[in-house]
Amino acid sequence: MDQNIRDTIKASIHNPEYLEGSFERDGWQAFKACVLYGGALFSSVMRVFSNGRVSLEEDRAIADNLLLLQRQYHGIFRTPL
After folding, report:
1. Partners of 74 in beta bridges
2. Which residue of 30, 33, 62, 70 could cross-link 16, Cys pair, CB 3.0 to 4.6 Å?
3. Among 17, 40, 39, 14, which residue's Cα sits nearest to residue 30?
4. Domain boundaries in the chain?
5. pLDDT digits (tens, 9 = 90+) for 4-31
6. Percent of the residues in the chain that have a pLDDT greater than 90, as a whole number
7. What is the pLDDT at residue 16?
8. In whole angstroms, what is the distance from residue 12 CA to residue 42 CA?
9. Cβ pair 12, 40 in contact under 8 A
């Protein structure tokens, strides 16, 4: 992997961050978080509703076509990485 891509990924990863909203007042809360999905890393804003539903409000690709070790599952059992 190119060092420039590594540096971009390292600089972009952050802990989930509360943005706004209240379950009691609004019925939802918004968060900004890094999301790994399908071999790509995104910086995303999600709205989490009090019933557990999650809505993706916006996302920005940080890196794609990442070579990742992925677990395989056989029923309840997973294979080692």
Report:
1. 77
2. 33
3. 17
4. 3-78
5. 888 988 998 999 999 999 999 999 999 9
6. 60
7. 95
8. 9
9. no
